[in-house]
Amino acid sequence: MNKLKLNYTSISFLPILVCIPLGYQLITNLHFGGLNLFQEFLISALNPKIDNEIIINVINRLNETILIGFISWLVSIVFGVIFGILSSDIFYRIFNIPIFLSKLIKLFLTIIRSIHEVVWGVLLIQIYGINLSIGIIAICIPSIAVNSKVFAEQLETIDYKKFESINQIHGPKLSSLLILIWNPIINTFESFGLYRLECSIRSTVMLGIFGIGGIGTSIFLSFQTLNFRELWSYLWALTILIIISRVIYKKIKFTNLNKWLSFFIIAVSLTTILFTISYSFYFLFNNFVDLNYFFKSSTDLVFFDFLKLILDTINLSLLSTGIAISLPPLVIGIFNNSTSKILIRFFAFFLRLIPTPILLLILLTFNNPSLSLAALTLGLHNAGITSKLLFANLDNEDKRTYIAMKSLGISKKTSWLFGLFSQQAKSYLSYCAYRSDIIIRETAIIGLIGSVGLGWQLQESLSSFAWQEVTIVLIAYSSIAIVGELINGKIKKRLT
Amino acid sequence: MKKTLLELKNISYKYENNLILNNVNLKINSGEKIALLGKSGSGKTTLISLLNGTIKPTKGEVKLFNQSFEELDLKQKRKITTIWQDLRLIEDLSAEQNVNCGMLSEENFFFALKNLLNISSFKKAHKYMKLCRLHHSIYAKKIRTLSGGQKQRVAIARSLIQNSNILLADEPFNNLDPALISTIKNLILENVDKNKTTLIALHKLDLLCDFDKVIGIRDGKIFFNLKKTDLKKFHLDKLY
Question: Which DSSP state fits B94?
Fold first, then answer.
């Protein structure tokens, strides 16, 4: 018997094996009590509620969503650039500052980044109550850290020789720094920063589900009242908003940055910095939190129960990652014709669009709550995202080998697998490694809704104001995310 | 008597356990035009990097104006300009923006910002670009769109605009057309400032005529250090 040889292509498909235990548990947990509801949900997609009241409501909710999403995007980009510079080696080399400070900032940002914005949101709501600014702060905290990592990584790519050559002119240090970092920052902003606006909008929707406001709150309320037609009106409105934002950022090009646009960018950045700093002081002084309050609480966590929750969270991450990696190439490979591809793209779009808590609640209509169901939800949502990338890569791939293989009489599926997919399996896996960082963080949201893992414990501890427990859960979460990020970093390094 | 500007005292330089330069002693006097010869890998680039302070010697001392490099203030350090073998231009900036970067040492932060926003004056940059025989149609073009020879001349213009006392150049004529080499060589050695001290690493032996001194490096050691008039054919034969 031939041995299975591991290569990038086979590694892309192997994780689908997680579906065996997952499928078994899902089948045993199947119930048909909510099948009617599920049916109604699907039919309502084609028959959303459209009347004056709902249109006005949609517009108002979208306005709130755009406001929160846009402000948090702007603040997180501007401060992401600042922290990106402060955590990049080039800054320390130019100013002759000990490099360990950059490591300290990086560590601080890694810890902040390891906690999902929804967790930040839930935490801040519990401390300060519900308002729009809490939503903005909750999105900004991890987003600044995420953005700064990306900007810092780009700044690390600046050729050391260029640094030497500019540094050797011995101009003012700030001038040398500006000359070296300007273009990498503008290019990263164009390729990554604008896309983050879409992410901010999605985060706003997610936080809305937890009560922050905007269209997410309406989606959740519609779901709770089982008003699926209304729910779909909001989902379609959200679709239009995301498509418009994507069209806009694809149109914006900074290759020939004119002086007025540059002035505008600088003016907006400076205003954002000034406004954010003054608002932060205003917020902190007007919402003073007595820290003693946190230390008064006690903890009832039992070590072995807590350990089980940690293992559940790790399991949830692994199972979801398995689905997110293998499902897209498997489905695209099996249903490899143009009609199926359109349907898959459409389906993947909705998996991305529907916030994970809502997706989980929909799946709960015909399945009992379990770790497998939570993993399926998270896996499906992320498969929607990885499939988008896979489609984009396959569209751009050189198809000559695929065509040549087909012309030799090899089947379409085999030609696709060896002539097309295998050529970019490596880059696909590399993206999946990055995606699994996000999946680990997202387990918190699923946990909050689906009563699984540490997310469930966090919800319980927050509800009972057991701040010591909250701190322990957050440390555990953060540690899992950081270890995951380190492992994925090593995998990404090997793949690139 | 001519003043000593640059001095290397018992310099050795190791890189990853390879001895690149071995006990090098060298004095460069004010106003001298020096040609640095040697095979590829003989240590010419390392010597230039030591002279401009980019790298520190493993052993020995580099002195500029009779002071060690660490003791120099910014004003003194600005007196050295380098034309690098690999040019080291900023690819995403235009040719004129790159040349303006040469003026960073004498301008403030806002000049750098204005240069990036394309609103600074390019008058001086254009003057030097013209001297380097660069056509005005390429002034605003991004570096990555230029040919090797054009990039080379932009790098030379950027160094000349710095107007420093000491010019170090690492094979600056590599990418140039034969017709241009003589023009650019004269520009570097004579036209801009006759009192400038210049050290140029070369491969083309036919360019030696305008230099005062010729230094040969072989296997990381100074093989000869002669006045141009004392240089004989056998010196070169032994060097290569």
Answer: B
Residue A97, token pair as written in the block: 């500052």
Q: Are residues A340 and A434 in the same domain?
A: yes
Partner residue facing B104 (CB), from A161, A169, A259: A169
For residues A426 and A476, membership in a common domain is answered with: yes
Q: How many domains does chain A have?
A: 2
Question: Whole-angstrom Cα distance, residue A106 to residue A104?
Answer: 5
Residue type, A98: P
Is the CB of residue B222 less than 8 Å from the CB of residue B215? Answer: yes
Range B32-58 average pLDDT? 90
Kindly state whether B82 is in contact with chain A, defined as any CB-CB distance less than 8 angstroms.
yes
| Token code pair at residue B31 | 């106003």
What CATH superfamily is the domain B1-79+196-240? P-loop containing nucleotide triphosphate hydrolases (3.40.50.300)
Let me know if residue A316 belongs to a domain: yes
Residue A46 identity:
L
Would the pTM of this model clear 0.95, i.e. be above it?
Answer: no
Q: Which of A159, A170, A180 sits opposite B74 (nearest CB)?
A: A170
Contact residues for A426 (Cβ-Cβ < 8 A; gap 6+) = A8, A495
Q: What is the domain range of residue A274?
A: 49-289
Q: What is the pLDDT of residue B203?
A: 81
DSSP symbols for A116-165: -HHHHHHHHHHHH-S-HHHHHHHHHHHHHHHHHHHHHHHHHTS-HHHHHH
Please report, for the domain that includes residue A305, its CATH number. 1.10.3720.10
End-of-domain residue from the set A234, A254, A289: A289
- Please report the pLDDT score of residue B191 as a whole number: 52
Whether B78 has its CB under 8 Å from any CB of chain A: the answer is yes
Q: Does B53 touch chain A (CB under 8 A)?
A: yes
**Cβ–Cβ contact B90 with A under 8 A:** yes
A-B CB pairs within 8 A amount to 75
Residue of B52, B112, B119 with shortest CB distance to A168: B52
CA–centroid distance for B66 within its chain: 20
**Mutation test of the interface with chain A: which of B51, B107, B117, B165, choosing the one with the most A Cβ atoms within 10 A?**
B117
Asked if residue A112 has pLDDT above 90, the reply is yes
A33 plus A72 within the same structural domain = no
Q: Which residues of B touch A179 (CB under 8 A)?
A: 90, 93, 101, 104, 112, 115-116
Q: Work out the pLDDT band at B214, boundaries 50, 70, 90.
A: very high
| A114 and A202 inside one domain | yes
Q: Searching chain A, which residue's CA lies closest to the CA of residue B74?
A: A170
Exposure of A203 by Cβ count < 10 A (0-12 exposed, 13-18 middle, 19+ buried)? buried
Tokens linked to A308? 């089980």
Tell me the domain boundaries of chain B: 1-79+196-240
Query: For residues A123 and A471, is the Cβ–Cβ distance under 8 A?
Result: no
Residues in chain A: 496
Residue B83's closest chain A neighbor by CA?
Answer: A165
B78, closest residue in chain A (CA to CA): A170
Q: What ipTM is given for this predicted complex?
A: 0.84
Q: Highest mean pLDDT range out of A79-83, A99-103, A402-406, B116-120?
A: A79-83
Strand bridging mode B33-38 / B197-201: parallel
Of B105, B109, B115, the CB nearest to A169: B105
For residues A273 and A319, membership in a common domain is answered with no
Residues in chain B: 240
Closest CA to A168 of B12, B47, B84: B84
Nearest neighbour of B88 by CB, restricted to A165, A174, A178 = A165
Q: Is residue A1 part of a domain?
A: no
Which is nearest to A293 in space by CA: A66, A468, A43?
A468
Whole-number pLDDT of residue B94: 92
Q: Do A171 and B107 lie within an 8 Å CB cutoff?
A: yes
Q: Which chain A residues touch B77 with a CB distance below 8 Å?
A: 170
Distance from CA of A102 to the nearest CA of B (A): 23
Q: How far is A262 from chain B (nearest CA, A)?
A: 6
Q: Does the residue A2 lie in any domain? A: no
